[in-house]
Amino acid sequence: MRVAIIGSGPGGFYAAEALLKRTEVAAEVDLFDRLPTPYGLVRGGVAPDHQKIKSVTRVFAGTAARPTFRFLGNVRLGTDLTVEDLLRHYHQVVYATGNEADRRLGIPGEGITRCTPATVFVGWYNGHPDYRAARFDFSVERVAVVGNGNVAVDVARILLRTPAELTRTDMAAHAVEALRQSRVREVFLLGRRGPAQAAFTPGELEELGKLEEADPVVDPADLEGLDATDANVALLREFTARPQRPGAKKIHFRFLRSPTEVLAGEDGGVAGLLLERNRLEARPDGTVAARGTGEIERLEVGMVLPAVGYAADPIPGVPHDEKRRVIANEDGRVVDPVTRRVIPDQYVVGWARTGPQGLIGEHKKGSGQVVAHMVADAAGLTARQLPPREAIDELLRQRGVRPVTFSDWSRLDQVEVERGARRGAPRDKIVDVQAMLELLGS
Ligand SMILES: Cc1cc2nc3c(=O)[nH]c(=O)nc-3n(C[C@H](O)[C@H](O)[C@H](O)COP(=O)(O)OP(=O)(O)OC[C@H]3O[C@@H](n4cnc5c(N)ncnc54)[C@H](O)[C@@H]3O)c2cc1C
Ligand SMILES: NC(=O)c1ccc[n+]([C@@H]2O[C@H](COP(=O)([O-])OP(=O)(O)OC[C@H]3O[C@@H](n4cnc5c(N)ncnc54)[C@H](OP(=O)(O)O)[C@@H]3O)[C@@H](O)[C@H]2O)c1
C-alpha cells in the first residue's frame, strides 16, 4: 500500500511511524512538506529556549531512516500538487497540515503598526521562511500580550530574556540581533478570565518566575478565594510573596480583562489598549465564561501581540470545516463538510484534525488511532494499480518543483549546526527557501 502524508510535523511523522510499524499492511510512505525543512512547529513554533523538547526530532529521524519512507520537502499541496494528483499516485492520503493561520481579536485598531499576531512573532523569531521579512519595533518599553495560553507565556518570556540567553539558543540570527537592541521593560499578560481558568501549564508559568532580569507581578486581590491546590494559583500566590528586585524588568499578570480597541498614537502605531473589565459567569454546562462589566480602562503600551490561538486555512480541494477551522473529519476520516459522509481514502491527523490543542507527545496516540482506521479500511485497496513510485518525482520535475529529500535536509541540518557552533548555539537557521535550494544545488 502506498500512502502520501502531507505535513511533516509531529502529526505527520507519528502517522508515518505508526503505519510503517503495522504488520497487517506493507506500506510505503511519501511524506511531503511545503518547506524544505521537516518537523513543522517543532522547528517553527517551539520556543528557542526550550531545546530539550526538540530532541523529539531524533525519533522522527529514526522514522525517516526506514527504507520504505521518503521525505519530499519543498512541495506544497494546493499549488505544486493537487488532491487529484495524490489520489492517482497513492492508495491513501493523510493530511497533517496543522493550523498555520491565527485567530483574531476582531476589535478596532487590530491591524495597526506594532499590533501583530503572535503567530507572526513566533514564526519570525524561529526563522520560519514565511515570516523572515516581518519587522518588529522594540524601541517601545511596554508590550501587551493578549491571551493566557502557553504561546502567550512563550512570547512574554522571549521578550524578556537577556541577549546572552538568546544567543545560546537556536533563535534566528535576525531576531537575536533585533532583540539585542530591545528597550522592552514591561510585559502585560492579559487574561480575559481568571487565574483558575488560565490555559498555561504550571511548568511554563514557573519559568516566568526564574528569568535572569525580569520579575513577575501579580495582584494578590486576583487570587482571593481561589483554590490553593490549583497549581497555577499556588504559583501565582508564591509570586505575590516575592520581593521585586530593584531595576528588574516586569511581567504583569492582568486577569479578567478583554481588549476592546487598539489605540494609535501620532506615528500611526500602537499607543495604548482599551480593556473592558470582566466578571466570571458560571454556565449551566459547568464552564465559566467572561462577561463584560462595561467598565473600561486604558493600558499604556507601545506594542500588542495577540496570542489567542491558531486555526487552519482551507487548502484547495481539501474539505474544510468553516466553523471549527479544521479539515472536515469524523474521528480522522475526512468527510464532506455538508453531508458529513466519509470521503474514501483521505484521512487527517494532528492539529488539522483536532484544532490547536495539545502537546507534541499527544500526537503519537492520535495519529496511531487514525492509522488504525486506515488499516481497517485498506482491504482491497491495493488491487488498484498505481503508477511507479518515482512517477510523482517526474511530475514535480515537469512542474519545475525541486523536491528536497531527507538526505538533502541532513546537509542543511549540518550547515546550520556548524554555523550555530560559531555563536555557541545548537544551530543557526537558514531562513530563506531560495538560499536553502542554492546551497543544495540543482
Ligand atoms: C508557538 C508554539 C509553541 C509550542 N511549544 C510546544 C512545546 O514546547 N511543547 C509541546 O509539546 N508542544 C508545543 N506546541 C504544540 C505542538 O507544536 C503541536 O501540538 C504540534 O506541532 C502540532 O503538530 P501537527 O503535525 O498537527 O502540525 P505542525 O507541527 O504545524 O506541522 C504541520 C506541517 O504541515 C506543513 N504544511 C502545511 N500546509 C501544507 C501544504 N499545503 N502542503 C505541504 N505541507 C504543508 C507545514 O509546513 C508543517 O511542517 C507549541 C505550539 C506552538 C504554536
Ligand atoms: N511549552 C509548551 O508546552 C507549549 C508552548 C506553546 C504552546 N503549547 C501548546 O499549544 C497549544 C496552543 O497554545 P495557545 O496558547 O495558542 O492556545 P490556548 O492554550 O488555547 O490559549 C489561548 C488563550 O487565548 C485566550 N483567548 C482566546 N480568544 C480570546 C479573545 N478573543 N480575547 C482574549 N483572550 C482570548 C484564551 O482564553 P479562554 O481560555 O478564555 O478561551 C486562552 O487563554 C496548547 O495546547 C499549548 O499548551 C505548549
The residue ranges in which pLDDT falls below 50 over 5 or more consecutive positions are: none
Number of strands: 19
Q: Which strand order do you get reading across the main beta sheet? A: 3-2-1-4-19-18-17
Shape: globular
Radius of gyration, CA atoms, in whole angstroms: 23 Å
Instruction: Report, as a whole number of angstroms, the end-to-end distance.
Output: 31 Å
Structural class: alpha/beta
Q: Would you tell me the overall average pLDDT?
A: 97
Bound molecules: flavin-adenine dinucleotide, NADP nicotinamide-adenine-dinucleotide phosphate
Helix count, per DSSP? 15
Main beta sheet: 7 strands, mixed
Tell me briefly what this model is.
This protein is of the alpha/beta class. 30% of the residues lie in helices and 21% in strands. Helix 1 (10-21) crosses helix 12 and helix 6 packs parallel to helix 9 (202-208).
Walk me through what this model shows.
The relative contact order is 0.18. Helices cover 30% and strands 21% of the residues. It has helices spanning 10-21, 41-44, 57-64, 83-89, 118-125, 150-160, 163-167, 173-180, 202-208, 231-240, 351-354, 362-376, 391-398, 406-421, 433-440; strands at 2-6, 28-32, 69-72, 92-95, 101-102, 142-146, 186-190, 214-217, 249-254, 257-264, 270-282, 288-299, 303-306, 310-311, 320-321, 326-327, 329-330, 333-335, 342-348. It is built from 15 helices and 19 strands. A hairpin with a 6-residue loop joins strand 18 and strand 19 (342-348). The strands form five sheets. It has a seven-stranded mixed sheet with strand order 3-2-1-4-19-18-17, sandwiched between helices. With 442 residues, the chain is α/β, with parallel strands linked by helices. Helix 1 packs across helix 12 and helix 6 runs parallel beside helix 9.
